Amino acid sequence: MPEQSEIRKRTVVVFSGAGLSAESGIPTFRDSNGLWENHRVEDVASPGGWRRDPALVLRFYELRFRGVQTAQPNEAHRSIARLQAKFNVLNITQNIDDLLERAGCENVVHLHGLIIRRKCEFHHDIFSDGGYTCDFKTHQDVPVKLGDLCPKCGGQLRPDVVWFGEAVNFDFDQLSVLVDEVDRHDGVFICIGTSAQVAPASHLIPIFSPVKNKYIIDVKTRPTGDYTLLEGPATAMMKKLADRLMSE
């Protein structure tokens, strides 16, 4: 018999949204009707909002930064991390917190950026029109303040998060290869904590439809195609699914 390390591990892809971290105390915009202090989220999370009132935008993200700092990974985060003992696990998350990493997850793609990083307002992943760009990006222990300037070019620093109208941090051309890998080797696709109503979630659900083992965990989402729906709190349902997968 081959050693366990020589046996090809199955791949588990976990696509997560705000509902994954809600039980850690991080609020979702869905729960607040898309408003923050009577400001539309688009006004404090968009390039236009940044140009109009950067101080307001930074105040919004300072509060979010503080919330992430004090939050702790919940049972759903830990259950996903536990799968790594048996599977190759890829996390693709819409969340800008680092709770998956703090739970022990090693392979995490943040589609919408990461609030514990900061970057120059002229960063090259924002501007692609041939004008001046700057590649400065770093982790941060404190939230960005107005007047925190890029050490390379002097531009104002901003949170390394993706705003409305900006491109997400993922090459979607890779997805067909990933779907084939998951499907051919009896892998698993899990969608947790997202309504899957808007892009990119609305694209990922049908893209992974060829995969035989696929699950949706959410309190509000309804099953799509032949997905198995686990309806209930993310913590309880993810633990239940992880227990099942680990026992196979």
CATH domain class name of the largest domain: Alpha Beta
CATH superfamily of the largest domain: TPP-binding domain
- CATH architecture verdict of the largest domain: 3-Layer(aba) Sandwich
Proportion of residues in helical segments: 25-40%
Shape: globular
Number of DSSP strand runs: 11
Quaternary state of the chains: single chain
Structural class: alpha/beta
Q: What's the number of helices?
A: 9
Number of domains: 2
Radius of gyration: 19 Å
CATH topology annotation of the largest domain = Rossmann fold
Order of helices and strands: EHEEHHHHEHEEEEHEHEEH
| Low-confidence blocks of residues | 1-6
**Strand composition percent:** 15-25%
Give the overall average pLDDT.
88
Please report the distance between the alpha carbons of the first and last residues. Answer: 18 Å
Strand order across the largest sheet:
5-4-1-9-10-11
Largest sheet: 6 strands, parallel
